[in-house]
C-alpha cells in the first residue's frame, strides 16, 4: 500500500525524526495519538451486541485490533517499544499492548502459538523415542552376542629383558597374538 494517512500517517511521519529535532507540538501530537488508541481499546465490550453476532464472528475489539494491524499501527508500536530514544512512550505502549490482550487468557495464547507446531513437536518426540528404544535394543543385542568372559591376555604387558629408550623394560599395549 501507499503511505498511511490520517492519524497513523502523522505518527509515522513524526516518529523517525530524531527526538532532539522534534518540536513540542510534535511530541504532544504523538502522545495524543497514543492516548486515543489507548482510549479506543479501553472501551468495554457491549454484551448485547456480542450476543447478536454469529458464532465465530469477530468482536468489536477484534475488529479494532485488525484495523490497527492493517494500518501498520502495530509495527509502529513495536518500534516505539524497542527504540532506545523513544523510551518516553514506553508506558503508553505497554498499556496499549495490555489492552490489546485483555480478552485473552494466557492458556489460549499459548495454545494458539503452538497450534500445528505442538502436534508436530509431539510427533517428533514420539519418533525420537521410538528410535532411541530401537537403538537401545540393538545395543543390548550386540552386548549379548559378545562372549561373557573376557580374554586374560588383553591389555598391557611388560617385556622383560628388552630395554626401552631408558633403563626400564618395554611396555607393550597389544594382544600377544600381534607380538
Looking at this protein, list some descriptive labels.
two-stranded antiparallel ribbon, mainly alpha, 2 strands, 179 residues, 7 helices, single chain
Task: Explain how this protein is built.
The chain has a two-stranded antiparallel sheet with strand order 1-2. The protein is elongated. The chain has seven helices and two strands; from the N terminus they run αααααααββ. Helix 1 (6-14) packs across helix 2, helix 2 packs parallel to helix 6 (90-100) and helix 5 crosses helix 6. The protein is mainly α and 179 residues long.
Order of helices and strands: HHHHHHHEE
Report on the biggest sheet: 2 strands, antiparallel
Uncertain runs are none
Give the amount of beta strand, in percent: 5-15%
Termini separation: 83 Å
Domain Timeless N-terminal: 17-158
GO molecular function: DNA binding
Protein name: TIM protein
InterPro entries: Timeless, Timeless_N
In short:
The chain has 179 residues and is mainly alpha-helical. It has a domain at 1-47 and 56-105. The protein has helices at 6-14, 24-42, 47-52, 60-71, 73-82, 90-100, 106-145, and strands at residues 157-163, 169-172.
Topology:
Blueprint: H1 6-14, H2 24-42, H3 47-52, H4 60-71, H5 73-82, H6 90-100, H7 106-145, E1 157-163, E2 169-172
Antiparallel strand pairs: 1-2
Helix pairs in contact: 1-2, 2-6, 5-6
Amino acid at each position: 500500500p501507499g503511505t498511511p494517512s490520517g492519524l497513523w500517517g502523522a505518527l509515522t511521519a513524526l516518529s523517525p525524526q530524531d527526538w532532539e529535532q522534534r518540536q513540542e507540538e510534535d511530541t504532544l501530537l504523538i502522545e495524543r495519538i497514543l492516548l486515543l488508541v489507548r482510549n479506543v481499546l479501553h472501551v468495554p465490550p457491549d454484551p448485547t451486541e456480542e450476543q447478536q453476532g454469529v458464532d465465530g464472528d469477530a468482536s468489536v475489539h477484534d475488529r479494532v485490533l485488525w484495523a490497527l494491524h492493517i494500518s501498520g499501527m502495530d509495527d509502529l508500536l513495536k518500534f516505539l517499544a524497542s527504540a532506545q530514544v523513544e523510551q518516553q512512550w514506553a508506558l503508553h505502549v505497554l498499556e496499549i499492548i495490555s489492552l490489546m490482550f485483555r480478552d485473552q487468557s494466557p492458556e489460549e495464547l499459548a495454545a494458539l502459538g503452538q497450534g500445528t507446531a505442538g502436534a508436530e513437536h509431539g510427533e517428533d518426540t514420539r519418533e525420537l523415542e521410538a528410535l532411541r528404544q530401537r537403538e537401545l535394543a540393538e545395543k543390548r543385542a550386540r552386548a549379548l552376542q559378545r562372549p561373557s568372559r573376557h580374554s586374560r591376555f588383553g591389555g598391557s604387558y611388560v617385556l622383560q629383558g628388552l630395554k626401552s629408550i631408558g633403563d626400564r623394560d618395554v611396555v607393550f599395549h597389544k594382544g600377544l597374538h600381534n607380538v
